[in-house]
């Protein structure tokens, strides 16, 4: 599985990981809802389980992805400051470029 984290997102995520007391926790990207080829994503700190793949990104952030979910392969995590500050998770490789 592949995943990408932008520089902005990596900075914010790393700050959170540095403040976490349980250093075994990694960032999990998951799907909260899907319909057709479109998914809504969420993130949480977690430990890998039986069906997970641990993906090292080029920004030094480790992600946990459920390998049974094809809409997670190619996911992109970004952090935007405008028009509203916060994380945006999409999967451009699957045609999912944002919430509708």
Notes on the structure:
The protein has 100 residues and is mainly β. It has one helix and seven strands; from the N terminus they run βαββββββ. It has one helix at 7-19, and strands at 3-5, 26-35, 38-46, 52-56, 62-66, 75-80, 86-90. The strands form two sheets. Strands 3-2-5-4 form a four-stranded mixed beta sheet, with no helix packed on it. The chain has a three-stranded mixed beta sheet with strand order 1-6-7. The protein is globular, with a radius of gyration of 13 Å. The model has no long low-confidence stretch (mean pLDDT 92).
Briefly say what this structure is:
This protein is mostly beta strands and 100 residues long. The chain is 13% helix and 43% strand. The chain is built from one helix and seven strands.
Would you spell out the secondary-structure blueprint of this structure?
Layout: E1 3-5, H1 7-19, E2 26-35, E3 38-46, E4 52-56, E5 62-66, E6 75-80, E7 86-90
Parallel strand pairs: 1-6, 2-5
Antiparallel strand pairs: 2-3, 4-5, 6-7
């Amino acid at each position: 599985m592949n995943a990408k984290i932008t520089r902005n997102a990596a900075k914010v995520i790393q700050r959170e990981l540095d403040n976490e007391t349980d250093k075994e926790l990694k960032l999990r990207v998951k799907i909260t809802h899907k319909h057709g080829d479109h998914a809504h994503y969420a993130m949480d700190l977690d430990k890998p389980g039986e069906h997970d793949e641990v993906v090292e990104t080029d920004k030094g952030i480790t992600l946990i992805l459920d390998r049974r979910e094809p809409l997670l392969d190619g996911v992109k995590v970004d952090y935007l400051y405008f028009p509203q500050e916060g994380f945006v998770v999409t999967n451009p490789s699957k045609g999912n470029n944002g919430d509708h």
